[in-house]
Amino acid sequence: MYRQKIDEKNKILELWVRRKRGNRKLECSGCGGKFADAYDSNERAVQDLPWSQFRTTVHIEVYRVKCPDCGVKVEKVPLLPSKAPFSKRFEDAVGQACEGASARQVARRFGMAESSVRAIDLRYLERWAATRRQPALRQRGVDEIHLGKKQKFLTVVCNLETSEPLWFGRERKQETRDAFFQEDLTARQRRGIEAACVDMLEPFRLSIEQQAAHCRIVYDKFHIMRRAHDAIDAVRRAESFRKGGRMRVLVKEKRCLLLSRWVNLTAGKRQELNQLFALNRKVFKAYLLKESLDRLWTYNYEGAMLNYFKRWIAQLRWQRLEPFQKLASMLLDHLDGILNYCRTKVPLGVVEAVNGNIKSLLRRGRGYKNLRYLLLKVQRMAATRTEFVVFKKAA
Length: 395
Description:
By secondary structure, this protein is α/β, with parallel strands linked by helices. It has 3 domains: 3-80, no CATH class; 139-220 and 349-394, 2-Layer Sandwich (Nucleotidyltransferase, domain 5), CATH 3.30.420.10; 221-343. 49% of the residues lie in helices and 18% in strands. The protein has 17 helices and 12 strands. The longest helix has 22 residues, at 221-242. The two termini are 46 Å apart.
């Protein structure tokens, strides 16, 4: 350091730094070649970590080298990762601050523009992604997230073993799923996929059967139970219209209780449901069918699972519950994907957990236009378990 300037009124500290004569080892930023002589030099001002209350700016003497392969190139400086006027440790501090706060809050803390904070955070995540080892993809999950009327759906492909997303795509068409197989995976990686946990949409199945023939399709329990919730809600609405007066109001107010599992209800809520069941037998039968369907995924053997499923369907014979008959018909059409859970165990609920992390980031960041930036943010959250650390400290 050969010069310094301190502005105590505005809290600004400026430092001028250059190399010593005996410590001039230059490296080409293009090919990494070593050079002892410099072509020319210039001065570059970068913002560094603040010292106490002073905003620090460091003026660094940067050299250029004449490389026989790359031509005249700027030397590679480890503390200057990009052409932006910020040091590497300053960008790392901003990136780490963005893991637990929104870009707007970090911008207020460092006295910067919100767009600059997002750009720094993206470069920080790109450097982190370039140095980490990508885990193997043996079990994957596919689902979609509804973003709104304009952007509509976002397709999410995640690794079920590491609980982190791998790829984002616009819309939920078959061409969108095919793009992931063709652009991001090699033929060897496609052959290595053992199972895929997906929704019961037709584009999901067609894309996997065409691009990864050795992959077993396992239908997600969450989506199947959501169809059962829709069926019991349809029964509740039909009974509320069929009954009149006080009974209509009573059935209408019990929607949340009917969609909840019996084990999660308190004693008072269970008593309310028992009073409803005593007055309406159809709602009682529909609730029992919904609760008993959840037991389907407790079996480890395919034959036992199939026998239980047959007994569950046999209970519908004299119940006259049309929504559950439609549900049973849909489950029979997708029976092979349900039985595949016994053949290949996949962690259920991981896809919805990843979707929950994505939605929390979208709410905190007021949306993301750059899908690459959003993907890296969710991957960093899954790899470092940021949310778990925050909850642990809060507790």
